[in-house]
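Let's practice the habit of predicting before peeking. Look at the sequence and jot down your guess about where helices and strands might fall. Then scroll down.
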Amino acid sequence: PGDIDQRLNLREIEQMVDQLNRLPSNKAQMELTPGKAVGGSEVLVRNTQQKPWRASLSRNNEGQRSTGEQMLNLGLEWDSPLGLADQLMLRGGHDVVSDHTQGSKNGVLFYNLPWGWWNFTYSYSESEYRSLAQANGFAFKQTGDSQNHQLRAERVVHRDATSKTSLNAGMAHLRTNNYIEDSRLAGSSNRLSEAQFGINHGRRLGNAFVNLDLGTQEGIGAFDAQDNGHPRPGQPVARYRKYSATLSYVQG
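Done guessing? Here is the structure:
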């Protein structure tokens, strides 16, 4: 974006087409045609656009018995609300039969903005529940809530005719609270912050596609996150470090 009268790079055009085709409403294709100047070429990007928004309403039994099995879900997706090939998603769910003893609800916000070789994403989710439990002939109230923020940036650092490599970095913050009769349970209520780093490499091999994704996540103290305290052996800690690796192979 913003480059005018600059020499065209074919990989940059391919990147633009990929960014456009992230959106379900786009079907962009690139064509090379003879240019007006001798030995020159023109790049045509044709895009068949569909409706830029999608709404959904559904009912299922994916809830828990203690908080309400029957769930009503509403979703809205909007492609390119700012005209920048960005995307906004809103989703929410609520139990169908709710009363003062049991119930649950949840909500999700997702926003993605591409910019050249970059891709920025922010997501937020929250949930609440309440239920009535029994033990030794006594009934007691259980309630809880959670909030999760996540921010991520990804950049393509190499691209050629058969492969693409990107680096990503992000940060997440999670808060959970659980109560019994309005008394907070310290053992299952947490404030965690996490730094995330990763690398992704995809490559075409003939008619197949191979993808390798490596990542690391580390618990940090940002945003008033809790510290380790004095955990016993085997208990979870807030200053953790974990690694992930995913290898996939798809035959065309």
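How did you do? The chain has two domains: 1-50, 53-251.
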